[in-house]
Amino acid sequence: MKRPPILTGACLYLGLLSAVMSIRAVTVVSSWNAESRADDVSFALRVLRDAGVGADGAETAYRTFVTVLAVLGAAGAVFAVFTARGDRASRVGMTVTIGLVGLATFAGALGTSFFLSMLGALAVVFTIRLWTGEIRTYFRTLAGHPPPTPAPTPTPAPAVTVPAAPVPAAPVQQQPAYQYPPGFGPAPRREPLPRPVSIAVWTTMIGSIVAAGLSALMLMAILLTGIDYDAVVEQGGLGAEMVGSESEFDRGMTLITTLSSIAVVLGLAGIAAATLALVRRRSGGTPLFVMAVVTFIVSWVGFPLGLPWGVLAVVAFLQLRKPEAKAWFGPS
């Protein structure tokens, strides 16, 4: 049985999400500092302390838990490769490992940022998707179960007709065809988008909406709250560890503001390119291709936060290079 494309996509996304969460967990453990990390993971530490664990015990338990999440995330990335190849046991292993890491990330075990919560939610959703629909049928067929047979359609009983006496046919008058006024008439039927074009368009659309939205929120937070160097140093946390002098802080904020502004512009351009392909159908191939290339380059400048969008850009690029997409958009 042919492997369903949705299985390949789900394993690709889950493998990448698992790798990102594993890297985040390793970063948290390797850069641990009890004084500056308390604010960043105060929620998790507070839960442990409320359960009766001492301060030192809570920190040790938390670091051990995050280390386990890093190992599970790395194992989930490996399971994703074998699940895509049709291994049933790996599908179970990937469900357990990535499901646990995704739930923990969504609950704030690796930080309470919106980006991490979104990664955890996506991991849980794609994990559940592995056990539904076409993917479930595919693995049941690999296990030796017969594929489901379509339900038989009831056939109506033959009608008994009684021949009637012939009736002379009345002369049929030919009605003239209705002529629509110039510029009016029935709307032409829209051709469905080929599968590669549809994947490229919606990947660009969704990725652009998320990128533009998150970057706009970042810019609003910087402009409205007025993040100050002294306030960051006083609050402590991971940001205080990374900031050296006030000049370095200013350069970092300038870089973040610049990257967020570029992401907003790219997100709006991606939405426009995807909308053009949806509205004008056979137009928009070149803008989509340009957006995929530019997004891939910019995503690696903002690594690791730009990694998900780099992956989406690669997906859109590969789909646009398929023969069906080239034939749809015409020679470029």
Characterize the structure shown:
There is one protein chain. With 332 residues, the protein is mostly helical. It folds into 2 domains: 5-142; 195-329. The chain has 14 helices and no strands. The chain has helices at 5-30, 34-37, 42-50, 55-84, 88-106, 114-129, 133-142, 195-225, 229-235, 238-242, 246-279, 285-301, 307-320, 323-329. Helix 1 runs antiparallel to helix 6 and helix 5 (88-106) packs antiparallel against helix 6 (114-129). The longest helix has 34 residues, at 246-279. The chain is flat, with a radius of gyration of 28 Å. The two termini are 36 Å apart. The mean pLDDT is 75.
Nutshell version of this structure?
With 332 residues, the protein is mainly α. The chain has 14 helices and no strands. The protein has 2 domains: 5-142; 195-329.
- Termini separation comes to 36 Å
H and E order: HHHHHHHHHHHHHH
Q: Summarize model confidence as the mean pLDDT.
A: 75
Could you tell me the radius of gyration in angstroms?
28 Å
Main sheet summary: none
Beta-strand portion reads under 5%
- Number of continuous helical runs: 14
Residues in helices, as a percent range? 55-70%
Q: How does the overall form come out from the CA principal axes?
A: flat
